[in-house]
Each structure stands twice: as C-alpha cells, then as structure tokens.
Known about the structure:
The chain is an alpha+beta fold.
Amino acid sequence: MSDASTDAPRGRTYRPVSGRVVLVLVVIMAIVMLVDALVRAGIVQTLLIAPWVLLAVWIVYELSYVSSVVVDARGARVTNLLRVTSFGWDRVRDIDLKWQLVFTLMDGTDVTAMGGPARSRPARAPRGDEDAGASVPRGIRVLDEIRERWQAAPDDADAPISRSWDWPALAALAIIVIWAITAILITR
C-alpha cells in the first residue's frame, strides 16, 4: 500500500505508508537512546555513541522511507535507495504493475519503483454486503491515475532520461561515517 500526498508544483508523491511508520518508530527509539546516554554518561560519551545510532536511523531511512515515485504533468521521478531516475512522459513506452510499478522507457530499460504502488489483493466486501463484491485494489487505482497523467501529458513533456545518485543521502552518510571514524580515533 502506498501513501499519496499532493503538492501542486511538484506533482503527486507515492511512497509506502509502512516506511513512514517504521522511520518514526526508529527515530523515537534513537532519541530515547541518545537522551538516556546523555543523562547517564554525559555529553562527551553521547557524542561518541551518536554516530552509530544515527547510522542505524540512516539505514532504516534508506531502506524503508526514501523510495518513492513523484509524478506530475511533465514526467516522473523514481527514487530507489541511492539512485534517482527522472524522465519526461514522452520517454515512456509502457507503465505496468508487476509486483511493483514498472516504467518501460524508450531506451529499452525498465525502472522499477520500489516505493510506488504494489500489487495487492482486492479488499473484501463488508459483512452482509455480498452483492457489492470486492473493490479495486489500491495499486490498480494508482496505476490508472499514473497512466492518465502519462496519456494526458503535453507535447513538451520530453525531458531526457536522467539517472543520478541521491546526493543528499550520500552526504549525510559521509558525515555520519566521518563522525564515527572520529569517535573511534578518540576512544583508542
């Protein structure tokens, strides 16, 4: 299941709801651990422990939250772990929902959106309402929304296919690693 939020200039963002929940729980645990270390051991020891806790938060952030799909009138941006792929709608050959949302691009590559809608079972009809039948799964509804944007794209939605690294996430990792190495050197 994915959560969709709307932001007019950026389009619509799809990401798993479970990722947000897991991230919030891990952040709360990290804060509790760091506050406990601060109270029990002091600021110096907390600063020596902090990079390891922050590394765990960063890993959970990357694995559960960062993967997303952003679509707007001109194209899409797919973020998977440390990679970001963006493209205009004119560069898309097909959009399908296998286990995850898959964009087939004109250059012959497939871009699987790990944070986008996923295949799921249809919801059951409420008890006593057997005539209603099962509703359409959320992943199929989101796939239809994305296909509608693709088909309604303006003629100038021809942004090139661009693949890059998630530089803010890599910068945060570099800071945490440098901090951890400094903590190791100080404690030796």
